[in-house]
Amino acid sequence: MKRFKTKPTGLLSSGELKTPYGKFLYWTFFTILLIVCFAAVIPALWTLVTAFKPTQEIYGDVTFFPREMSFEIFKTRIVESWQALDLVRPIMNTLIVSVGSLFATLVIDGLGGYVLSKLKVKGVGFIFVLVVWSMLMPAQIRIVPNFIAWGHFPFAYPIGGWNLRDTYLPICLSAAANAFNVILFKNSFDTLSDSYVEAARLDGSSELGIIFKILFPLSQPIIIYVAIMTLNGPWSEFFTPMLYLSEENYTLPAVVYSLKSNTAIQLNTYFMCMVFSSIPLVLIFVFFQRYIMGGVNIGGVKG
Questions:
Q1: CATH T-level assignment (fold) for domain 88-300
Q2: Which of 107, 109, 186, 294 could form a Cys-Cys staple with 181, CB 3.0–4.6 A?
Q3: Which of 164, 172, 165 is nearest to 101 (CA)?
Q4: Cα 256 to Cα 87, 90, 209, distances in angstroms
Q5: Which residue has the higher pLDDT, 12 or 53?
Q6: What is the separation, in whole angstroms, between the first and last Cα of the chain?
Q7: Where are the domains of the chain?
């Protein structure tokens, strides 16, 4: 309890923590958080250790850790699983989708935020209401209309157009249709003085030059947060790739899901596949944790 002597006022002040009631609340909340932490960590840890077990041990023994553990055994399991799964193509597909989604998101959502914040065109208030309203729309009701629309782009009706299914465009452009990101950009641009925009226009800069040369560099925290979240999406989304892509163009999460019914893949190899697919997400969080947590605060408090 010594570390709370200078604790700022919150749910419990430093003085209240010294009372029996304060100590009871503290240890109650601590116990609850500890249980939640175990509930979140144990399934991931169980997946990891099961990936290194022999198949017979998975079905035959009720043990948490493998009975035999050594560096050579672990190395052999990783190499054998990698060769059996052949994940090079799915990983490359996921990288392509990640980069395409990032480019489309920054351009489309950034332009949307600029229109709502700085252009002040007629009817911008109504447009902003529609953007906010789209966040309340359940994603499930858009599945069928979107599927039809991408098959007859841009008419959204079976009268012609281009069939963009089995391409990465529906996934990348769907990722860019993110109302939350548009609002983030708008709020970030609102905090910047209009004098920057007016001075750039007097110097002869185009609207695109104002966005990408002035507003974007001044909104670096938002750019980083949106980029991290956008890159994270294709490594965890499996439904959209399975809906629009053929099996040879599947991204990594879709491949992991499809292997669930593949009887040629042993159970421990399937668990190793889930471990492989989790590595990019873990690396993204480890290296960009500060920006991710900062973005949560940015999204919760208007600048």
A1: MetI-like fold (1.10.3720)
A2: 109
A3: 172
A4: 10, 10, 42
A5: 53
A6: 35
A7: 2-85, 88-300
Total Cβ atoms within 10 A of residue 158 = 9
What does the mean pLDDT of the chain come to?
83
The one-letter amino acid at 91: I
pLDDT for residue 5: 55
C-alpha distances (whole Å) from 186 to each of 77, 181, 249 are: 49, 9, 35
What's the rounded Cα separation, in Å, for the pair 35 and 38?
5
Q: How many CB atoms lie within 10 A of CB 3?
A: 7
CB-CB neighbours of 94 under 10 Å = 24
pTM of the model: 0.78
Q: What is the pLDDT of residues 93-148, one digit of tens each?
A: 999 999 999 999 999 999 988 888 888 778 888 888 888 888 888 888 888 888 88
What is the 3-class SS of the chain, one letter each residue?
A: CHHHCCCCCCCCCCCHHHCHHHHHHHHHHHHHHHHHHHHHHHHHHHHHHHHCCCHHHHHHCCCCCCCCCCHHHHHHHHHHHHHHHCCHHHHHHHHHHHHHHHHHHHHHHHHHHHHHHHHCCCCHHHHHHHHHHHHHCCHHHHHHHHHHHHHCECCCCCCCCECCCCCCHHHHHHHHCCHHHHHHHHHHHHCCCHHHHHHHHHCCCCHHHHHHHHHHHHCHHHHHHHHHHHHHHHHCCCHHHHHHCCHHHCCHHHHHHHHHHCCCCCHHHHHHHHHHHHHHHHHHHHHCHHHHHHHHHHHHCCC
